[in-house]
Design a protein that fits this description.
Its cofactor is Zn(2+). This protein is α/β, with parallel strands linked by helices. The chain has three domains: 3-20 and 233-361, Rossmann fold (3-Layer(aba) Sandwich); 24-102 and 122-227, Nitrogenase molybdenum iron protein domain (Rossmann fold, 3-Layer(aba) Sandwich); 395-430, no CATH class. It contains 17 helices and 14 strands. The protein has helices at 10-16, 24-40, 42-53, 66-75, 80-96, 135-148, 167-176, 186-195, 212-221, 246-257, 272-286, 292-302, 311-321, 333-337, 354-359, 395-411, 415-430, and strands at 3-6, 103-106, 112-119, 122-126, 152-156, 180-182, 205-207, 226-227, 235-240, 264-269, 304-307, 325-329, 345-348, 385-392. The strands form three sheets. It has a six-stranded parallel β-sheet with strand order 1-11-10-9-12-13, sandwiched between helices. Strands 6-5-4-7-8 form a five-stranded parallel β-sheet, sandwiched between helices. Helix 2 (24-40) crosses helix 3, helix 2 (24-40) crosses helix 9 (212-221) and helix 8 (186-195) runs parallel beside helix 9. It starts with a strand and ends with a helix.
C-alpha cells in the first residue's frame, strides 16, 4: 500500500518531485466557460450550474436568502455551533496579530514619507461544496477578510441538485461575517466574481481552494482581479525520530491522504524500526476508515516512507520538498525548528496533529502547495489589504536632491521626467 524507500533510491526523487497530468487538457474548456460568462452573465452561469451541478436556478434564487440562513441554523447539530464559534474566535485572534498600521516618518526639513494600509472593498471566497461540507474553509477565508476590515465578503459554493448549499457552510458564513452567499461553483463562479453579472457584482480578490477547473479559472482571471494562490492537491511531510508514536504518525499521514487520490503523505525518518511500525499501523487504520479507495490510491501513487541516514538528512529533504504541512514528530522539535526553511505550516511535537491547524488553533489552513512554500505564504490578513506609499517632499529637500533626480532621468533617456524636476529647480533658483 505504501512504500518504504531508502534515501538515495531513484524512487525517492519521484516522490519528492510530484508530476501530475498535463493541465492543458482542461484549459480550453475553462477558457470557454470564462468567455461565456463574461459575454452572457447570469444566463451562462445558470446554464453551467444546471449542466454541471444539476441545479436549476434563476437569478431570483441564486443568492441564499435570509430565510435559508435561518433554516440552516435550525437543521445543524446544535453541538457543532459552539465549536464553530470557538474556532472562529481562535482564527480571528491569530489573524488580528497580523494587522499592520499606517505609518508616517516626518523629517526636519518638512519632508514626509509614509504608508497607508487599506482593506479591499469587496472580496470573493470560493468554498467547495455539492455533496461535501467544508465550514472550516469558510472560516479560514472569511475571518481574515473580516479582521482586515473588508466591507463586502461574497461567498460562492456549488449547490446540490436540489439547489441548496450545505447548512454548516451557510452557518459558518453567517458567523464569520460573510455578506452575500451565492449557489454557484466551478469555473463559472470564478468568472462571475471576476467579471461581474447582473446578479453577482465583481470583486477585487478571489480566495479559496477548488478543483482543477477552479484553479485554472483563478489563474486565467488573475490581473482582472487578484487571487490568493493556485492550490494543488494536499500534502503532508512528517519528520520523525525514534521517540515518535507510530500510531500517531500513521493517523496523521492518513489525515491528508484521505483528501484526494492525488494527495501526498510522506514520512521521513532515520529510524528503520519506526518506518516498519508506521507501515503496519497505516494498513491497520485504513481497514476501518471510510475513504478506503481514496486512501489506497494516494498511498500507492504519491506517498512513501523514506528512511534516511540521519535526522539532518531528513531536514534537508523536507526543505527541498517544501511541504504544505510539515510535522516535527521528534523529541525536541524546537531544537530543529531553526533549520526549517520551507513549509506552509509547521506542527510541533507529538500532540500537534495536523487537524489541530485545519480546524481550530487559529493559523490559516489555506497553504501553499506543490513546493510553492519556497516562496509563498499562507493566506493571511495582508492578502485582503493593499498598501499605498505616501511621499511629501518639501521645497528644501527638492532643492537639495533635485539634480540627482535629473541625472537619473537623463540616464534613462526620459527628458520629460528630468524636465518635471528642472522647471521647479529653475523657478526656485530665481526666488
Amino acid at each position: 500500500m505504501i512504500r518504504i524507500l531508502k534515501s538515495g533510491q531513484a524512487e525517492v526523487e519521484k516522490v519528492l518531485n510530484k508530476v501530475y497530468e498535463d493541465q492543458a487538457v482542461y484549459e480550453q474548456r475553462v477558457s470557454e466557460i470564462l468567455k461565456e460568462v463574461r459575454e452572457r452573465g447570469d444566463e451562462a452561469v445558470l446554464e453551467y450550474t444546471a449542466r454541471f451541478d444539476k441545479a436549476r436556478l434563476t437569478p431570483e434564487n441564486l443568492r441564499v436568502s435570509a430565510e435559508e440562513i435561518e433554516e440552516a441554523y435550525r437543521v445543524i447539530d446544535k453541538d457543532v455551533l459552539p465549536a464553530l464559534q470557538k474556532a472562529r474566535d481562535n482564527i480571528a485572534a491569530y489573524h488580528e496579530k497580523q494587522l499592520q498600521k499606517c505609518w508616517f516618518d516626518p523629517e526636519e526639513d518638512g519632508t514626509v514619507l509614509g504608508q497607508l494600509v487599506r482593506p479591499l472593498e469587496r472580496v470573493g471566497i470560493y468554498v467547495p461544496g455539492g455533496t461535501a461540507s467544508y465550514p472550516s474553509s469558510v472560516l479560514m477565508n472569511a475571518v481574515p477578510a473580516k479582521v482586515a476590515g473588508v466591507k463586502e465578503i461574497v461567498m460562492v459554493a456549488p449547490p446540490t441538485a436540489g439547489g441548496r448549499i450545505d447548512p454548516y457552510s451557510i452557518v459558518a458564513a453567517a458567523e464569520a461575517g460573510v455578506t452575500e452567499i451565492y449557489k454557484v461553483g466551478g469555473a463559472q463562479a470564478v468568472a462571475a466574481l471576476a467579471y461581474g453579472t447582473r446578479t453577482i457584482r465583481k470583486v477585487d480578490l478571489i480566495t479559496g481552494p477548488g478543483n482543477i477547473y477552479v484553479t485554472l479559472a483563478k489563474k486565467m482571471v488573475y490581473g482582472q482581479v487578484n487571487i490568493d494562490m493556485l492550490a494543488g492537491p494536499s500534502e503532508i511531510l512528517i519528520i520523525a525520530d525514534a521517540s515518535a508514536d507510530p500510531t500517531y504518525v500513521a493517523a496523521d499521514l492518513l489525515s491528508q491522504a484521505e483528501h484526494d487520490v492525488l494527495a501526498s503523505a510522506v514520512l521521513v525518518t532515520p529510524s528503520e524500526k519506526l518506518a516498519h511500525a508506521v507501515k503496519a499501523e497505516i494498513e491497520r487504520q485504513v481497514s476501518y476508515l471510510s475513504r478506503k479507495e481514496i486512501l489506497t490510491a494516494s498511498l500507492r501513487d504519491y506517498s512513501a516512507i523514506i528512511v534516511t541516514d540521519s535526522l539532518a538528512e531528513a531536514i534537508e529533504m523536507a526543505n527541498t520538498y517544501a511541504p504544505e504541512h510539515l510535522e516535527l514528530a521528534v523529541e525536541k522539535p524546537f531544537d530543529i525548528l531553526g533549520k526549517i526553511k520551507n513549509a506552509g505550516a509547521v506542527f510541533m511535537g507529538h500532540y500537534t496533529a495536523e487537524p489541530v491547524g485545519d480546524y481550530y488553533a487559529g493559523p490559516n489552513h489555506v497553504l501553499p502547495t506543490g513546493g510553492t512554500a519556497r516562496f509563498y505564504s499562507p493566506l493571511n490578513v495582508d492578502t485582503f489589504m493593499k498598501k499605498m506609499s505616501i511621499i511629501a517632499y518639501s521645497r528644501d529637500r527638492l532643492e537639495k536632491v533635485g539634480q540627482d533626480i535629473v541625472k537619473l532621468a537623463k540616464v534613462e533617456g526620459l527628458d520629460a521626467h528630468a524636465n518635471s524636476i528642472q522647471v521647479r529647480l529653475d523657478k526656485l533658483a530665481k526666488k
